[in-house]
Write a structure and sequence with these properties.
binds nicotinamide-adenine-dinucleotide; binds (2Z,4E)-2-hydroxy-6-oxohexa-2,4-dienoic acid; 7-stranded mixed beta sheet; 17 helices; alpha/beta; 22 strands; 497 residues
Length: 497
């Protein structure tokens, strides 16, 4: 069945105003399979004209049926999308693996999480999208309501495309906005599948639109469009800055989920085996292309040798393979360009004096974008390989002596997305977690998500938060209504005495 799905992948069109259409320019770009670097299909290359068309449709839908719809009815569509995703996991997950190189066992879980994103926001909106009341004695009742903002522009990356797209689309739609998604150009297949699912769910035309294309053209036009009220962006830090510059003239509201170089700190009293499991999973799952990956390991000097020996054994035994094989733990990186960038960091590591320890890639996979799981040993936090986001299955390993030193080093970086602390000392666990400058910390755990909590980073890792109530702050406009309950005093300007 999977073979049939992949052999029958069609060219991808734009989804605008309820129809699948070619780009206005007639142009298309090639989509490659990271496993073979062969062409999968052609993708319609949207640009300014298509963004204009999509914005027109989204604006009309917002003013029309979708904007007028009762909340219960709107949320029924959101639940329907969740159900349809669940029904089609077994075809969406292989498409995602085919397009990105992510192992199928992991994409299956991510697709299930995507369905959950829709369900979660339908529940959040029905139970929690409430305003506040501010009675003022018997003079006023002031209260707030949340209104959708309008047309939402969502710009997403290729590293976990389906899950990250739905993490934005679900709250944007559930709160009543209309949406234009600009997916990453390296991973268009499942965004297209989502358009088909949303079409099947029967949402009114123009409520959800997908414009494929490049960041510099389609993405930039979406950011600059005066009728797009907000941009939620996930991607690289430098792209985030560029987008903020380009959106300044039209005063866009921004949510920025950006890069990371997150520390995992393992103290000598940590549960050794669990810390080892978490540390390996945290850098090598998603092929290391995870924003919250623990890409900097700080390991206490008393257990450094033993922990590194155990890590090497894991690296030797990780199953590098075909992303569509159930047993595969690491697949090829999403694109040749990114692969070359990640490899360039292995050269930099050698130049900076690290001991580069890599697993192996089976000979039969040499045409894919495979980077073997790699440890950069004997590193110093000042090195480029400790400061820059590599975004591959590569972990920088740094020894430390004491708590004060490790906190300073963990924070000596421009990023602040996530962090992980391993210790059996509960006081130290809290203390160190609170001292790390990052948006999200986990104590004695890998990156386990709770959709209710604020997701996002500090410093150069982002602005704002997604998740739970935090999505309401971003995707809705709070309006306050002041109602006089009696005849309070009004100054009488210009009234003759
Ligand atoms: N903090 C988070 O939640 C989070 C989650 C996932 C990924 N990321 C980060 O994303 C990066 C990897 O993703 P990527 O390489 O796709 O990022 P990227 O910044 O290159 O691209 C992301 C998206 O932005 C678009 N884009 C590029 N230039 C644009 C422009 N000038 N105007 C508008 N849109 C533009 C791209 O086409 C793509 O859709 C990593 O840095 C990773 O850490 C962060
Ligand atoms: O690449 C960014 C993805 C972040 C989300 C997670 O790591 C996750 O939710 O598992």
């Amino acid at each position: 069945m999977v073979k049939d799905i992949l052999e029958n992948v069609q060219d991808v069109k734009l989804y605008i105003n309820g129809s699948f259409v070619e780009a206005t320019s007639g142009k298309a770009f090639e989509n490659l399979n990271p496993f073979t670097n062969e062409t999968i299909n052609q993708v319609a290359e949207g640009d300014t004209a298509d963004i204009d068309e999509a914005v027109r449709a989204a604006k009309a839908a917002f003013k029309g049926e979708w904007g007028q719809m009762k909340v219960k009815e709107r949320l029924a569509y959101i639940y329907k999308i969740a159900d349809l995703i669940d029904e089609h996991i077994h075809e969406i997950a292989p498409l995602e693996s085919y397009d990105t190189g992510l192992p199928i066992s992991q994409t299956k879980k991510m697709v299930a999480r995507a369905a959950q994103n829709f369900r979660f926001y339908a529940e959040m909106v029905s139970a929690r999208l409430v305003g506040d009341a501010y009675p003022v004695d018997d003079e006023f009742l002031n209260y707030t309501i949340h209104k959708p903002v309008g047309v939402a522009g969502l710009i997403t990356p290729w590293n976990a495309p389906f899950m990250l797209e739905t993490w934005k689309i679900a709250p944007a739609l559930a709160t009543g906005n209309t949406v234009i998604l600009k997916p990453a150009e390296w991973s268009p297949l499942t965004a297209n599948r989502l358009a088909e699912i949303i079409d099947q769910a029967g949402l009114p035309d123009g409520v959800f639109n997908v414009v494929h294309g490049f960041g510099e053209t389609a993405g930039a036009s979406l950011v600059a469009h005066p009728d797009v009220q907000l941009i939620s962006f996930t991607g690289e830090t430098t792209t985030g800055s560029e987008i903020m510059r380009n959106g300044a003239d039209t005063l866009k509201r921004f949510s920025m989920e950006l890069g990371g170089k997150s520390p995992i700190i393992v103290f000598d009293d940590a549960d050794f085996d669990r810390a080892l499991d978490a540390c390996t999973w945290g850098i090598f799952s998603f092929n290391g292309e995870r924003c919250t990956a623990n890409s900097r390991l700080f390991i206490h000097e008393a257990i450094y040798d033993k922990f590194v020996a155990a890590l090497k054994e894991r690296v030797d035994n990780i199953i590098v393979g075909d992303p569509l094989d159930e047993g595969t733990q690491i697949g090829p990186l999403a694109h040749k360009t990114h692969y070359n960038r990640v490899l360039s960091y292995l050269d930099i590591a050698k130049e900076e004096g690290c001991d580069v320890y890599s697993g192996t890639v089976p000979e039969s996979y040499k045409s894919g974008n495979y980077v073997a799981p790699t440890l950069l040993l004997g590193a110093d936090n000042k090195m480029r390989i400790a400061q820059e986001e590599i975004f591959g299955p590569v972990m920088t390993v740094i020894p430390f002596k004491d708590e004060e030193e490790v906190i300073e080093k963990a924070n000596d970086i421009r990023y602040g997305l996530a962090g992980y602390v391993w210790t059996k000392d509960i006081k130290r666990g809290h203390r160190v977690a609170q001292a790390v400058d990052a948006g999200m910390l986990w104590v004695n755990s890998q990156n386990v998500r709770d959709l209710r909590t604020p997701f996002g980073g500090s410093k150069h890792s982002g602005i704002g938060r997604e998740g739970g109530y935090y999505a309401f702050e971003f995707y809705t406009e709070q309006q306050v209504i002041h109602v006089a309950l009696g005849d309070h005093h009004i100054p009488q300007f210009g009234k003759k005495k």
